[in-house]
Design goal:
Blueprint lengths: L3 H12 L3 H12 L3 H25 L6 H8 L2 H29 L12 H18 L6 H25 L3 H6 L9 H10 L8 H5 L7 H30 L2 E3 L5 E3 H6 L3 H7 L5 H37 L5 H4 L9 H17 L2 H29 L12 E4 L2 E4 H20 L1 H39 L1
Antiparallel strand pairs: 1-2, 3-4
Amino acid sequence: MLGVGGLFSAAYGDVGSSVYYALGIVSMSALGLTPPVLMISGIIFLFTALTYAEGATMLPEAGGSGAFAKRAFNDWVSFIASWVLMMDYIVTMSISAFSAANYLGFFLPLLKTWPTNSIVGMAIVVGLALINCLGLRESSRLNIVLVVIDLGTQVLVAILGVFLIINLPTLINNIHWGVAPTFDQLLFGISISMVAYTGIETVANLGSETKNPGKSIPRAVMLVFAAVILMYAFLSMTALSAYPVYQAPDGKWVTDLTQKFLEDPVMGIAYAMPGFIPYFLGFWVALLAATILIIATNAGMLGASRLAYFMGQRQQLPGFFGNISKKAHVPTHAILIFSAIAAFLVSTGKVDLLADLYAFGAVMAYTLAHASIVALRIKEPNLPRPFKIPLNIKIKGRDIPITSVLGGLITAITWLIVVYTHHIGRIVGFTWVGLGLLLYLLYRRYKNKRKKLQAADTHQQV
C-alpha cells in the first residue's frame, strides 16, 4: 500500500516530468507572459487537484473522472469522461517518449532532428509496450529515488537561475501588451498551458492502493502542487531571462527558447549558464530528463491499461480491451492497441499538435470531474468523504465546494477556448469523441440484443 511518499513520487513523476516539454510549448504562444500564464494554470491545477482528492478518497477505485461521473450522472457521461481521459494517457505516452528522444540529442545531435527523434520515440513506446505485456513492473522504490533526484535537479537549476540568469528588467521588457503576445496568442497560451500539469489523474487511479487515503491523498496532492508551482515559476523566469522576446526579420515576435529548444527547453536553460556549467549540467539534465520522461511514458501506458480495464468492467468498452492475460496479468490487448496509436502520434514529430490534443481531453475531463463532485454533494450528501474540500457555501442545506464550482467554470471556458483556437486539436479531438461514442453505442446495442436472445432461449426452454 502506498503512503504519502509513494503517492507523491507517482504523481510528481507524471506532473513534474511535463516541465521538460511544457516550457517550450507554452512560451511559443504566451511569450513574455509565460510565467504568469503558468501561475494561472497552476491555480486551475490546485482547484482540480482538490476535486480529485475528494473524489479519490470518496470512491477509491481506478477510473478517476469516469468513476466520479458514473456515480454522479450516468454511463454516457462516465464514458465520455473516461474516453477523453484515454486520449490524454495516449498523448502523455507520445509527448513524453518524443521529448525523451530530443533530450538524448545531447549525446548524439542526430536524435534532435526529425525523423530520427520520432523513430527513437516510437521505439521507446514499442519497447515499453512489450515489457508491460510480459507483466514486468518498475520498482516503486526506484521511482521514488529517481523522482527525488529529479526534483533536486530542478531545484538546482532554479537556484542557479536565480543567482546567475534571472533579470527582472528583461522579464518586464519581454512583455509587449497586445502585440507580443496578442490577445488571441494569450488565450491560446492559457489553454495550451494545461499540458504543464499532466498526470493529476494518477492520484485518483491509485486511490484503491493507498494506505489511509483520507490523509495520504490530500497531503500528496498539496505537496505536488507546491513543488510544481515553484519549479514552473523559477524555471520559466530563468528561461525568459536567458532567451528574451524579440521581433524577427519577418515581423513575428519570438524567443530563442522556442526557436532552438522547443522540444527540450530545460536543456536550453542549461546551455545558457555561464562558464563550464553548461557541459556538466547539460549532461546531467539530458540523462535525468530522458529517464524521467521514459518513466512518464510508462506511467501513461499503465494509466491507459488500468482505464481500459475499468471501462471493460463497466461494459463501456468490449471485453476484448480489458481482458487480463493469464500469464502476465495485464490487459495485453489494451496496451498494444493504445501504444500503437501513441507510436503513430509520435511519428508526426509535432509536439504542438500533441499539446493541442492533451488540452482538449484534459480540460473536458476536469470539467466533468468538477461537475461530478458538485452533483454528488447535492445527490448524496451523506456519502462518506474521508477528505472534504474546504471553503463551502450552503445552498438548500447542501455544502457546495467553491473551488469545484470555480474550477468547473474555468475549465469549461478553457475548453471552449481550446475548441475555438486549436484548429487541428478541435478536429482530432471531436473525431476521437465521435468514434468512441459510435463504438460505445454499437457495443451497447450488441449487448442488449444478446440479452434479448438469451432471454428468448430461456423462455423457449421453459
